[in-house]
């Protein structure tokens, strides 16, 4: 940088940058980098938010046709275990009949197609969905129902009746094993 | 250049002298803790044993609010072992603790220990002069009150405590815990181990600090030498 | 070369850069300036470093729960302990350089005409630095910092008239939960003001320094870049030894206890760089004693160009230099005694060392300089 500007500004002095000065300047640059890097790295997520951001939830205790709700990243997350009938009913729907077409496969994780994990917020008027705790109305499609605008979702979290027009959001997560899921 | 280096050496010598004196005059614990000294590091085996003592004995009255169960992985415990430890502890709402929970606060009846409040132990080794050695000496320092000292009711005489009168009853008894590594759980051993654990708790970055520090100092010594050489070389051309 | 074809892509679009670079490479400086002449620049570099590390700390710092947020930084944030160390050790280095700069100015008598303005700006920057340092110490939320804020708030609000109103404005009334939030803003804002003062000082210094004959000049680059680099690296080495092996250098262990009305502080408990000032403020009794001591100590420094009765141009004599060195030891002793390091003797030693400080400036300086001028 300095060398090019030396030429560019036309000061005309010959370069004094022999091996020693280059070595010193490079070692100085390394020292500067080693000082600045920790400060940049310090702005990356801290251990606390790493730990809560990569939350692990045990789903072994969730019985068929029931759900649990957990808080992750400030959002209510609904986790439901489907029955064989719910899976069969929703596996081969005609895509074009849905307001927001989505295949069964795209709503579950391969190998764990009896678990649906969604953000439990209505995609129309934003409010928490009903149907996750026992006794709450699940709506005509046996999924979730918005108490605010009447939007209804199926057990896979696909919108089936408006005014909402988008399916429920699926958070980033993976199955660690059959009993545990981890949010990322 | 020479005078500068001369001063540096003098300063280093002075520091070494002061440190040596401080140690020689210290009549506290005869133990040497691995975490002490210029290049000390946490004795993880001792700190693991110390955690067992902490969990069994200290935690029934003291808090350590700054510590999470996941922090224990730094002592060489596996995540599964730590999860096992956490699962055995109940949090305030009765659920088993998880890795991300802090050490829970014990319930002690109001007015216990004559109204003295057991201090939080997260940073106790940094808050007391001589840190780990003071704690070790305190835990083993209970003695009958010497003639002429009248103890306050429900206070105990301790040679390490400033003023000698301590509200904490002697906490350690031999074989309070059973060490997995087969070490005999004498009072002295438990005291030394829990002191090392509390030293780690107050300074969990000790190992990284000394490791990075040694590398940084060596690199900067090298950089100082070549910087001075470069400077002299560049200035030679002015003539 | 293609310099003729394309005189400079950048210089034609950003002429100031070209001018800046030309200024650095044109012989314009005296030869063989001593290493200690680098101190103002080192202080500036140190403040840049403190600003960078301070900004990272400010991201995680929470004035509503200061101590807990510092715990969080040290234990949970990536390299948080290191950034905290950067900030604490950087402060130690900047203050060491600032004290050395003042000592050097006194030994060389550079505060005399035409350098008075440089000296005045030095003292203003030093006073601001002390204030910013104290604010940082207050922000730690430890027991020592807590009581220091408490005492300062009470003292400031008891001041009569406009000064009291200023004190109330500064602290926002009696010490409450909002105080640290406001002190955080002042800590950052005043730190930036120091840069401005240092910039003014740079201009004043240039005007006060006569240039040698053109044949005796050298360019800043590469000669002084090489020299400044050596100074910077040596400071970094000292800083690393402190940061990694004596991380609590010059701080009271008392400040590792969370602050609160029940955690009673004994002694001043201030960091080393504030200790001499704490000594001066402990010197006078009464409601306004503390503030009187602080103000008098700094006003005497400001008045030094006029307390020195020697004519312009004379080199400092041996007696004056000896007295200045004695003053340096006296200030060290004052800080040492103010921290309560001398046990039961501390109170007496503070009075002795503090009295010498005033004796030095008010009596010895005018007499000795007048004698040496004859």
Characterization of this structure:
The complex is a heterotrimer of chains A (184), B (239) and C (374). With 184 residues, chain A is α+β, with helices and mostly antiparallel strands. Chain A folds into two domains: 2-42; 51-183, Rieske Iron-sulfur Protein (3-layer Sandwich), CATH 2.102.10.10. Chain A contains five helices and nine strands. In chain A, the strands form three sheets. In chain A, strands 1-9-8 form a three-stranded antiparallel beta sheet, with no helix packed on it. A three-stranded antiparallel beta sheet of chain A has the order 2-3-4, with no helix packed on it. A three-stranded antiparallel beta sheet of chain A has the order 5-6-7, with no helix packed on it. In chain A, strand 8 and strand 9 form a beta hairpin. Chain A starts with a helix and ends with a strand. Mean pLDDT of chain B is 83; it is low at 1-29. Chain B is globular, with a radius of gyration of 23 Å. Chain B is built from seven helices and two strands; from the N terminus they run αααααββαα. With 239 residues, chain B is mainly α. Chain B has helices spanning 2-24, 44-56, 79-87, 124-127, 131-139, 187-202, 206-236; strands spanning 156-157, 165-166. In chain B, helix 2 (44-56) crosses helix 6 and helix 5 (131-139) runs antiparallel to helix 6. Chain B has a two-stranded antiparallel ribbon with strand order 1-2. Chain C has 374 residues and is mainly α. Chain C folds into two domains: 30-270, Cytochrome Bc1 Complex, Chain C (Up-down Bundle), CATH 1.20.810; 271-374. In chain C, 70% of the residues lie in helices and 2% in strands. In chain C, strands 1-2 form a two-stranded antiparallel sheet. Chain C is globular, with a radius of gyration of 23 Å. Chain C starts with 8 loop residues before the first helix and ends with a helix. The model of chain C has no long low-confidence stretch (mean pLDDT 89). At the B-C interface, helix 7 of B face helix 4, helix 5 and helix 10 of C.
């Amino acid at each position: 940088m300095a060398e090019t500007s030396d030429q560019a500004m036309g000061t005309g002095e010959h370069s004094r940058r022999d091996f020693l000065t280059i070595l010193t300047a490079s070692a100085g640059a390394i020292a500067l980098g080693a000082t600045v890097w920790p400060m940049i790295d310090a702005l990356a997520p801290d251990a606390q938010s790493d730990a809560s951001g990569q939350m692990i939830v045990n789903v072994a205790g969730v019985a068929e046709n029931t759900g649990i709700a957990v808080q992750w990243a400030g959002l209510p997350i609904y986790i439901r275990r489907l029955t064989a009938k719910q899976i069969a009913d929703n596996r081969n729907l005609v895509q074009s009949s849905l307001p927001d077409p989505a295949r069964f496969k795209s709503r579950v994780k391969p190998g764990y197609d009896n678990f649906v994990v969604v953000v439990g917020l209505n995609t129309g008027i934003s409010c928490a969905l009903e149907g996750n705790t026992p006794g709450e109305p699940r709506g005509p499609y046996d999924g979730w129902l918005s108490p605010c605008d009447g939007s209804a979702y199926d057990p896979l979290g696909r919108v089936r009746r408006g005014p909402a027009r988008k399916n429920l959001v699926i958070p980033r997560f993976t199955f660690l094993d059959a009993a545990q899921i981890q949010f990322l | 250049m020479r005078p500068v280096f001369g001063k540096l050496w003098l300063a280093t010598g002075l520091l070494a002298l002061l440190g040596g004196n401080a140690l020689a005059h210290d009549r506290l614990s005869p133990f040497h803790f691995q975490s002490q000294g210029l290049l000390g590091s946490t004795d993880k085996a001792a700190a693991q044993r110390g955690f067992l003592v902490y969990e069994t004995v200290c935690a029934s009255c003291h808090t350590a609010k700054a510590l999470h169960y996941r922090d224990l992985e730094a002592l060489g415990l596996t995540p599964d072992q730590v999860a096992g430890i956490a699962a055995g502890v109940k949090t305030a709402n009765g659920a088993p603790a998880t890795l991300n929970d802090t050490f829970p606060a014990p319930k002690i009846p109001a007015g216990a220990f004559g109204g003295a409040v057991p201090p939080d132990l997260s940073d106790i080794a940094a808050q007391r002069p001589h840190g780990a050695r003071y704690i070790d000496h305190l835990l083993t320092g209970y003695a009958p009150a010497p003639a002429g000292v009248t103890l306050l009711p429900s206070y105990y005489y301790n040679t390490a405590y400033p003023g000698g009168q301590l509200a904490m009853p002697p906490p350690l008894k031999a074989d309070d815990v059973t060490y997995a590594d087969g070490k005999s759980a004498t009072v002295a051993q438990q005291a030394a181990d829990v002191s090392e654990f509390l030293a780690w708790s107050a300074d969990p970055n000790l190992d990284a600090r000394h490791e990075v520090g040694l590398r940084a100092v060596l690199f900067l010594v090298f950089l100082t030498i070549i910087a001075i050489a470069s400077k002299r070389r560049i200035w030679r051309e002015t003539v | 070369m293609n310099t003729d074809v394309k005189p400079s892509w950048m210089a034609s679009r950003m002429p100031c850069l070209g001018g800046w670079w030309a200024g650095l490479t044109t012989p314009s400086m005296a030869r063989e300036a001593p290493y200690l002449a680098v101190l103002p620049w080192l202080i500036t570099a140190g403040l840049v470093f403190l600003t960078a590390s301070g900004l990272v700390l400010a991201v995680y710092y929470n004035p509503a729960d200061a101590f807990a947020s510092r715990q969080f930084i040290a234990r949970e944030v990536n390299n948080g302990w290191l950034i905290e160390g950067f900030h604490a050790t950087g402060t130690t280095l900047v203050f060491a350089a600032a004290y050395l700069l003042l000592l050097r100015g006194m030994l060389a008598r550079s505060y005399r005409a035409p350098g008075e303005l440089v000296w005045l700006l030095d003292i203003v920057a030093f006073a601001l630095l002390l204030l910013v340092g104290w604010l940082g110490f207050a922000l730690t939320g430890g027991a020592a910092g807590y009581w220091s804020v408490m005492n300062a708030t009470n003292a400031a609000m008891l001041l009569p008239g406009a000064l009291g109103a200023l004190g109330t404005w500064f602290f926002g009334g009696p010490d409450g939960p909002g105080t640290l939030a406001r002190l955080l803003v002042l800590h950052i804002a005043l730190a930036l003001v120091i840069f401005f003062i240092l910039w003014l000082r740079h201009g004043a210094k240039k005007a006060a320094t006569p240039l040698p004959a053109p044949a005796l000049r050298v360019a800043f680059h590469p000669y002084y870049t090489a020299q400044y680099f050596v100074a910077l690296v040596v400071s970094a080495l000292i800083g690393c030894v402190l940061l990694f092996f004596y991380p609590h250098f010059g701080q009271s262990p008392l400040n590792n206890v969370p602050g609160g009305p029940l955690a009673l502080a004994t002694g001043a408990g201030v960091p080393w760089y504030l200790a001499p000032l704490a000594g001066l403020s402990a010197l006078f009794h009464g409601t306004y004693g503390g503030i009187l001591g602080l103000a008098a100590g700094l006003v005497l420094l400001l008045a030094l160009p006029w307390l020195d009765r020697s004519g312009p141009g004379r080199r400092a004599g041996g007696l004056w230099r000896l007295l200045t060195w004695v003053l340096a030891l006296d200030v060290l002793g004052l800080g040492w005694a103010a921290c309560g390091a001398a046990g039961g003797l501390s109170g007496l030693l503070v009075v002795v060392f503090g009295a010498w400080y005033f004796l030095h400036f008010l009596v010895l300086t005018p007499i000795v300089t007048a004698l040496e001028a004859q």
